[in-house]
């Protein structure tokens, strides 16, 4: 089984994460940011990843450091997977009422994010919507993955939740074992 444990402690946050890539979508997530917990729960459930995450951050300042550092730690965990014999690429298109999110990913060792998300509100609960793109940038830089996403809709909750569901499904597809593949690179390395 592909199980990883990552701990990160800075002057701003303390994070403990356990990830089972070959899980069934069992999660226990507490970040102190209820909406962030909600969308991470969706990521875990729809990606079939078992995720245990505890984050204590300087929420008295704001939610930025916590969201950023969770992205870093989750990215570090996914970067630990063996790159041979996985599908490498994953994608999803998810509707949620009036919202629709598309998400595609390449676990190819080259961090890059192209994201089309412009929030119509500054907050969902105590979660700052400007941190959506920053979360994916933090994740991509530490997972060393290429991400492209788009989301449309009117309701911010629906837009962000659809995006995280699509993220989970795309990551599930990309990380699936496929023994026919070997190392998927004409360069011979990722």
Descriptive overview:
With 190 residues, the chain is of the alpha+beta class. 33% of the residues lie in helices and 31% in strands. It contains 4 helices and 10 strands; from the N terminus they run E-E-E-H-E-H-E-E-E-E-E-H-E-H. It has helices at 34-47, 64-79, 131-143, 156-175, and strands spanning 3-9, 13-20, 27-30, 50-57, 89-96, 99-106, 112-116, 123-124, 127-128, 146-152. Strands 1-2-4-3 form a 4-stranded mixed sheet, with helices on one face. Helix 1 (34-47) packs parallel to helix 4 and helix 2 runs parallel beside helix 3. The longest helix has 20 residues, at 156-175. The protein is globular.
Integer average pLDDT: 96
Alpha-beta content class: alpha+beta
Helix content: 25-40%
| Share of residues in strands | 25-35%
Shape: globular
Q: End-to-end span in angstroms?
A: 21 Å
Q: Write down how many β-strands occur, each being a DSSP E stretch of 2 or more residues.
A: 10
Element string (H = helix, E = strand):
EEEHEHEEEEEHEH
Largest sheet: 4 strands, mixed
Annotation field: number of helices: 4
Question: Which regions have little confidence, pLDDT < 50, spanning 5+ residues?
Answer: none
Across the major sheet, the strand order is: 1-2-4-3
Round the Cα radius of gyration to an integer and report it: 16 Å
């Amino acid at each position: 089984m592909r199980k990883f444990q990552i701990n990160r402690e800075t002057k701003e946050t303390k994070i403990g994460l356990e990830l089972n890539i070959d899980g069934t979508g069992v999660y226990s997530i507490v970040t102190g940011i209820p909406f962030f917990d909600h969308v991470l729960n969706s990521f875990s459930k729809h990606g079939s990843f078992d995720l245990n995450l505890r984050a204590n951050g300087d929420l008295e300042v704001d939610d930025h450091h916590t969201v950023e550092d969770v992205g870093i730690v989750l990215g570090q965990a996914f970067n630990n997977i063996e790159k041979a014999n996985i599908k490498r690429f994953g994608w999803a298109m998810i509707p949620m009422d009036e919202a629709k999110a598309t998400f595609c990913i390449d676990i190819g060792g080259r961090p890059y994010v192209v994201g089309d998300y412009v929030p119509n509100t500054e907050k969902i609960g105590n979660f700052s919507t400007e941190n959506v793109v920053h979360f994916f940038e933090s994740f991509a830089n530490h997972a060393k993955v290429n991400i492209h996403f788009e989301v449309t809709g009117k309701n911010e909750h629906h837009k962000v939740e659809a995006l995280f569901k699509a993220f989970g499904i795309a990551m599930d597809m990309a990380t699936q074992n496929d023994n026919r593949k070997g190392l998927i690179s004409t360069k011979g390395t990722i």
